[in-house]
Write a sequence for this structure.
């Protein structure tokens, strides 16, 4: 049925395969009975396998069992869900927050709930696939602007098709997941502010920020808005994940009471899906506590990021516009990306190649965490020294 298409994927070196771990997530993992230094997780603070996180999850499991059993609007939620939402709202300085089952579910549920037919969404061309799919599901007119190009966005916002719409939504990754660069949120904020002063008789333009890779990483863990010193506004909607720096699973949206109430009533991926289990919620809740009480986690993450980026640049690698613990090693072809990744694998370093259609330019995506040791980074350096790519 799909034989020919699969054969074509293989011919182009674009076929994917799964390599499962037989150990916990962390800086060292076991795959195929071999230990690897793991430069391929989004576990930025090293919390996914942290004993205090697993203990919190296991205590919650003892008390609440494992499965959620129903949608949150039925009997799926626990009191831990509400406690977590309060903590997230406090972290993000918003009125309210709502937990979703994953970042993918959040984006594909929230975007169609805030924009629909007749509205317009402006989306960065490199936004995450879940945003792309959310925009498609919304049926709003979606206009892509060049990556982080605020002049382009500004120009598009003044086009007649934009001015005539009732609802305008600007949507962006805060930290771009494959490039590790940061969206110019200060300029985006100013653009929205100006737009909203002009659009007095229409709905305010919304700024929707996906802070999956900024939460727990930037702004002392509060995220990318805090990093830029931007205070929340009723027209800013912040989404983030519990699955990356917070070491758990699931996602959230934080915003005004009105926005959260609207999403509780209309986001289909929230309404029509079983709630995430209390144990995942407890793990995320504990991660927020740890992030606050152990500032050294974020400090260590950034120390490792700087050390690794300096080392890679020193070896002549093109790391693109990376400003965060996501550091791509840009290469010229899919074959080079595979060659580099295979070489690292042979040397005991796990860092898979990222190829089209995930990205336009092939690369090996290195992610650094607080849990990496100096020795781990030195091993990466050594492995790269003997590489021809
Ligand atoms: C920017 C961005 N948004 C959303 C997601 C989806 O999050 P999740 O893995 O929780 O579905 C990801 C992650 O993979 C991401 O990088």
């Amino acid at each position: 049925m799909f034989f020919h298409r699969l054969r074509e994927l293989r011919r182009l070196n674009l076929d994917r395969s799964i390599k499962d771990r037989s150990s916990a997530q962390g800086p060292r993992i076991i795959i195929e009975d071999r230990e690897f230094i793991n430069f391929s997780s989004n576990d930025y603070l090293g919390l996914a396998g942290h004993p205090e996180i697993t203990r919190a999850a296991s205590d919650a499991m003892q008390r609440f069992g494992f499965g959620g059993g129903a949608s949150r609007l039925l009997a799926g939620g626990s009191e831990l869900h509400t406690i977590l939402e309060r903590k997230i709202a406090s972290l993000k300085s918003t009125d309210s927050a709502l937990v979703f089952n994953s970042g993918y579910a959040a984006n594909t549920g929230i975007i169609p709930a805030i924009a629909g037919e007749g509205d317009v969404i402006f989306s960065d061309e490199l936004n995450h696939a879940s945003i792309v799919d959310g925009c498609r599901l919304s049926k709003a007119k979606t206009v892509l602007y060049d990556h982080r190009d605020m002049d382009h966005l500004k120009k598009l916002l003044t086009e007649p098709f934009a001015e005539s719409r009732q609802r305008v939504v600007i949507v962006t990754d805060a930290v771009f997941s494959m490039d590790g660069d940061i969206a110019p949120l200060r300029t985006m904020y100013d653009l929205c502010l100006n737009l909203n002063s002009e659009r007095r008789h229409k709905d305010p333009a919304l700024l929707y920020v996906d802070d999956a890779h900024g939460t727990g990483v930037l702004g002392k863990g509060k995220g990318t808005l805090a990093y830029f010193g931007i205070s929340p506004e009723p027209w800013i909607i912040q989404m983030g994940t519990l699955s990356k720096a917070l070491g758990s699973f699931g996602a959230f949206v934080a915003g005004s009471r009105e926005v959260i109430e609207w999403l509780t009533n209309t986001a289909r991926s929230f309404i029509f899906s079983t709630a995430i289990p209390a144990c995942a919620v407890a793990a995320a809740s504990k991660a927020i506590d740890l992030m606050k009480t152990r500032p050294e986690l974020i400090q260590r993450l950034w120390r490792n990021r700087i050390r690794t980026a300096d080392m890679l640049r020193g070896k002549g690698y093109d790391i693109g516009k990376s400003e965060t613990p996501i550091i791509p090693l840009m290469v010229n072809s899919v074959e080079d990306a595979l060659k580099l990744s295979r070489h690292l694998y042979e040397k005991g370093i796990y860092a898979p190649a990222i190829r089209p259609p995930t990205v336009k330019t092939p690369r090996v995506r290195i992610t650094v965490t607080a849990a990496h040791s100096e020795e781990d980074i030195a091993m990466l350096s050594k492995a790269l020294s003997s590489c021809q790519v």
User: Anything to note?
Assistant: The CA atoms of residues 13 and 335 lie 7 Å apart. The chain has a mean pLDDT of 96. Residues 102-104, 107, 128, 130, 173, 177, 210, 212-213, 241, 243, 251 surround pyridoxal-5'-phosphate (CB under 6 Å). The longest strand covers residues 168-173.
